[in-house]
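Q: I'm building a small set of examples for a reading group on sequence design. Run inverse folding on the following structure and report the sequence directly after it, with nothing in between.
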């Protein structure tokens, strides 16, 4: 690991060049989701960059969304520099003028010289964001508490919604996105048709009707650390969760959980720079390093999220590869759903209002 990190730092020094110490006078405030995910970013990016340059960081956790960024920008009191953000939030934030528009020609090329604009996967480069990792929201269950009355273990999202076949409480994130998609899939809609159906009033009614069938059995979670704890404590027999959180619980803490990879919702995370960030120049230099193929691959040594540069694959530890959402044995193109962040950028407010009203009923 030490030699690998040394190679990453050397690549940064050679491929990007060193700034004078004065460029790193202020601490970069780096905002992310916390837990094992933020820890992976600290290990793969922040620590080696600090060792190379002396740059210091404030690392802050948040629960997503644009509210805090909007408040800072509108008040003219921006304290955050870099934020790890979902694509739908970055697109909305870009449209609202809350984020810095990025020049994607500045990112380091692939090791073979391929320009970064040809190396990142589709959707990873938008006006105001540069992608970093792919991840999945997945259903999972506790092998010691699940009971199927002779049906075997659950494998589909329909099983997740079937509380008669698999009795017990369920954990769901307290937001409409992903839940509405899974509700339609559990109701028989093919993954390829989900967003076409969800884009209609009838499809939305159908999704909420399906959620009604398990509403009384749901424990709602808001922070990524909660689902593994809910499973471990026996408060739920199944829950949705981020695959990286489950990887940490299963393979580092030995928890008896099982991921249902079939109905995974495949997504990605991105980096943005807040408009008016106090350390914008230093933040961009850091992102040039943190989005290299080597640094993105190094992240997988700490969490099972996949890098978004095609040239990163040879740098991924082969022991880690089977735990990534895109590993062949985990990814079924018939049942896996690619999260449509453009759909949610357009429909977030309307469906969130309806979801909150539905929760309150």
């Amino acid at each position: 690991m030490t030699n690998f990190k040394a190679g990453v730092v050397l690549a940064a020094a050679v491929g990007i060049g060193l700034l004078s110490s004065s460029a790193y006078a202020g601490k970069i405030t780096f905002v992310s989701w916390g837990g094992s995910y933020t820890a992976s970013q600290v290990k793969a990016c922040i620590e080696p960059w600090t060792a190379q340059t002396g740059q210091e960081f404030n690392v802050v956790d948040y629960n997503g969304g644009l509210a805090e960024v909007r408040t800072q920008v509108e008040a003219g009191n921006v304290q955050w520099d870099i934020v790890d953000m979902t694509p739908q939030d970055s697109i909305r934030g870009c449209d609202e003028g809350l984020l810095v528009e990025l020049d994607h020609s500045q990112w380091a090329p692939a090791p073979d010289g391929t320009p970064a604009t040809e190396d990142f996967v589709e959707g990873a480069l938008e006006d105001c964001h540069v992608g970093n990792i792919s991840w999945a929201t997945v259903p999972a269950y506790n092998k010691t508490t699940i009971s199927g009355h002779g049906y075997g273990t659950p494998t589909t999202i329909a099983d997740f919604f079937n509380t008669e076949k698999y009795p017990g409480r369920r954990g769901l994130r307290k937001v409409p996105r992903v839940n509405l998609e899974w509700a339609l899939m559990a109701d028989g809609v093919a993954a390829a048709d989900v967003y076409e159906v969800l884009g209609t009033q009838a499809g939305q009614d159908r999704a909420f009707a399906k959620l009604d069938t398990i509403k009384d059995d749901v424990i709602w979670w808001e922070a990524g650390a909660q689902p593994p704890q809910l499973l471990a404590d026996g408060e739920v027999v199944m829950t949705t969760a981020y695959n990286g959180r489950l990887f940490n619980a299963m393979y580092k803490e030995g928890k008896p959980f099982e991921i249902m990879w079939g109905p995974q919702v495949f997504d990605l995370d991105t980096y943005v720079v807040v408009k008016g960030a106090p350390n914008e120049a230093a933040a961009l230099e850091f992102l040039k390093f943190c989005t290299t193929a080597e640094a993105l691959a190094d992240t997988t040594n700490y969490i099972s999220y996949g890098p978004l540069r095609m040239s990163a694959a040879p740098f991924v530890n082969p022991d880690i590869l089977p735990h990534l959402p895109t590993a062949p044995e985990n990814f079924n193109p018939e049942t896996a759903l690619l999260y449509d962040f453009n759909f949610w950028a357009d429909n977030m407010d309307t469906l969130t209002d309806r979801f909150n009203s539905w929760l309150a009923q």
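The longest strand covers residues 129-142.
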